[in-house]
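ok so I'm stuck.
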Amino acid sequence: MDSLPILIILGLGVAGALAIFYTTRKSSADTKLQESEAKIKASWSESEKTVQNMLGKAQREAQDIIQKSKSSLDDEIRQRRREIDQIESRLMQKEQHLDTRESHLQEKETGLASDVEKNRHLKKGYEEQLKELIVMLEKVAQLSVEEARNYLLTNVEKDIRQRAGLMIKQVEEQAKKIANRKAKEIVTDAIQRTAMDYVVPATTSLVHLPDDDMKGRIIGREGRNIRAFEAITGVDVIIDDTPGAVILSCFNPIRREIAKIALQKLIVDGRIHPTRVEEVVEKSKKELDEIIRERGEKAAEELGLQFHPKIIELLGKLYYRTSYGQNILGHVVETAKLAAVMAAELQVNVNLAKRGGVLHDIGKALDFEQEGTHSHIGEEICKKYGESNEVINCIMAHHEDEDPETIEAVLVTIADAISSARPGARRESLETYVKRLEKLEVIANSFEGVEKAFAIQAGREIRVIVKPDTVDDPGTYKLAMDMAKRIEQDMEYPGEVKVSVIRETRAVGIAR
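replied:
not stuck anymore, here's the structure
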């Protein structure tokens, strides 16, 4: 009986404890719920901010893409406009040439009309005189015109025809023999007196090394020296198993000669690294400019002629140009000598023939830098530096761009044909190869942002160096694809052509 109150008290205690525990847990749960709601709200607010930032970033990136696309389209539009302007310029030149030809034809037509009118008056006077003579003859001979005609035809016609035919045949045969003999004598004498040897440049140059260890120094650590040399000169350096030598390969003889001089200097100096390579190449360019001027002066001195210094420089450049494998400087000097000998035999202006002969291909010194045929480029050069109209006519007439106005112009055309057609003078395959490589570089240089372009590996690769402030990294991929597409459209070539676009940003610091 006494344990019942105790149990009741214990039960009430447990119930109170449970009530307190439940109240505490409920309060704690409410607190956690409020904290969770606060965290959810904060997370939601932060998520909204993140989404807004992502949307803003996406919008900016989209604007950048749109801007780049617009810039690319603007560049392409400018390029198309330049091409259209060039086409319009050429059409205007052709139109001016046609207008000039039409003016000449109109002048000739006017002169012919005047001559016809004069002949009409002369014919009328002769007919009147003939009538008077016929009347007088009829009175003296007591025969009519018809009777006299029949008499003469009956008695004399056969004899006169026979004699006239024999005389005409003899005169023609004699004239042909004399003309052929004289022409052969003049041409043979000219060829014998101006026979020349040619140095036909190939597409490679050999540079001798003091020992095979120098090959490793030329290559450099991880190939940095040879890469720098090829990038600066535009020449492909071939290092193979040939003992004591390396080969420089490039279709452009001027670039190849600069590379040869520079490499020889580097071998003698012994210091080979990219910065030194750049310095030596610049010095070699200046040295070659001096060599070019000396070659031009030597050619002018050999012919006994005086020219403007700029024409002397262009003559020197012709030594490094070929036409179907024939050295052009040797060709123009030979043409000048042939024309001079023939002019002396015919007793015409020897100096004009010689001057027209040496300048007839002067435009080829710049035909890979300027638009137009070498005849028209040569015409512009000679006009600019004070050559006479007769010399300009020799230049324009040798490929029939104009009609020859002097005997000397005809002689220059003949001498050019003799020099080009003699056995061993020309090789068509080399010229076709060089023209293809030149066209590769012209196509590459026509794109916006290109600083240098070099055709290497015998035309199997075109290496393009772009301006880093004009073309960005993504732009190099588009430029490479555009060039490849243009080459496919505009050229014919064996195999495939690799387009390598290089973008390099260089920073230089000097410690003093």
